[in-house]
Design goal:
Layout: H1 2-31, H2 38-54, H3 60-83, H4 91-113, E1 118-119, E2 127-130, E3 135-138, H5 139-161, H6 163-173, H7 175-180, H8 185-210, E4 213-214, H9 220-233, H10 238-258, H11 264-278
Antiparallel strand pairs: 1-4, 2-3
Helix pairs in contact: 1-5, 1-8, 1-9, 1-10, 2-3, 2-4, 2-8, 2-9, 3-8, 5-6, 5-8, 6-8, 9-10, 9-11, 10-11
Length: 292
């Protein structure tokens, strides 16, 4: 039962990584940008949810909606102000800008909410006993895994069945050709940032519900690990982001349980290096050939 308990915890943590990784993989797959400020949008979403329940008296579900709305708007603002002017710039300039936006959000959170950790109230409490009480699964774990599955299915249907999803896939393949076909590339990229940032808010609430301590640096390490999960699964692939996130969460929990708590992060990144040496495009990534 101990092994099963660790496995469930790993899938729960991995589901959070997967939701965050979906934002990374969508932005990279469509805009070909690495938005390293994505982890700090997680933190902003968690703070909005915290303020909504602790200070404004909103019910839990409304606080999640408020966090998603604020982060959706924030994602569009970040894209329009920081990334859109660099659409044709070198990738290094975009990367440096993303790091700058990340530090700006962290320091803004320090000024607004102070560096003192906040005790986050989980969105769900209690647990469900299994196997005659030998094992119990918390409701937040159930909600996290369910949210990940629903988001994954919804995004797959959205990108495959809707007009905007078709536009996203076209922009991902060739921005210039998509623009010639009448697709508004700027709007498509803004919608991509909006969806990714909204998902980051949900992930932030779920993460802080499982680990109820909130501070301005809360999203930094989960953001890096989620990016690792996106690369692990094959960045640009929605199923790859989910697979990479869940596998990364399981590896991390098992590494903490059976090897070393201090070395768990090193083990996670070591596994990533090994996978990329064997399959450079990630588990579900597809190698693209370039014509010259």
């Amino acid at each position: 039962m101990t092994f099963l308990s660790y496995l469930i915890s790993g899938v729960s943590l991995g589901s959070v990584y997967a939701i965050i990784a979906l934002g990374y993989t969508m932005v990279y797959g469509i805009a070909k940008m690495l938005n390293f400020a994505h982890g700090d949008v997680i933190m902003v979403g968690a703070y909005i949810s915290f303020c909504a329940t602790a200070y404004w008296g909103m019910p839990t579900w409304m606080s999640i909606v408020a966090a998603a709305v604020v982060c959706t708007v924030l994602g569009v603002v970040i894209e329009r102000l920081a990334y859109k002017p660099l659409r044709q710039a070198a990738s290094l300039a975009v990367l440096i800008t993303a790091i700058g936006v990340s530090y700006f959000l962290q320091n803004a959170a320090l000024l607004i909410w102070s560096p003192n950790p906040k005790s986050f109230t989980p969105v769900a409490s209690g647990s469900v006993p299994l196997f005659g009480g030998q094992l119990s699964v918390s409701w937040i774990t159930i909600w996290t895994v369910a949210a990940c599955a629903i988001i994954m299915i919804a995004l797959t249907l959205f990108t495959g069945k809707t007009k905007m999803g078709t536009a996203m896939r076209a922009v991902s393949e060739d921005k210039g050709a998509a623009q010639l076909m009448g697709i508004n590339v700027n709007t498509t990229i803004s919608v991509t940032f909006a969806i990714g940032s909204g998902l980051a808010a949900i992930a932030g609430v779920l993460l802080c519900s499982a680990y109820p301590q909130l501070m301005p640096t809360t999203g930094a390490m989960p953001g890096i690990k989620a990016f690792t999960a996106a690369v692990f699964g094959g960045i640009g692939s929605i199923p790859g982001a989910m697979l990479g996130g869940i596998l990364l969460g399981v590896i991390e929990i098992f590494a903490k349980a059976y090897i070393s708590t201090q070395l768990s992060d090193a083990i996670v990144f070591a596994v990533l290096i090994v996978v990329l040496l064997v399959k450079p495009d990630g588990l579900l990534g597809k190698r693209k050939s370039e014509k010259v």
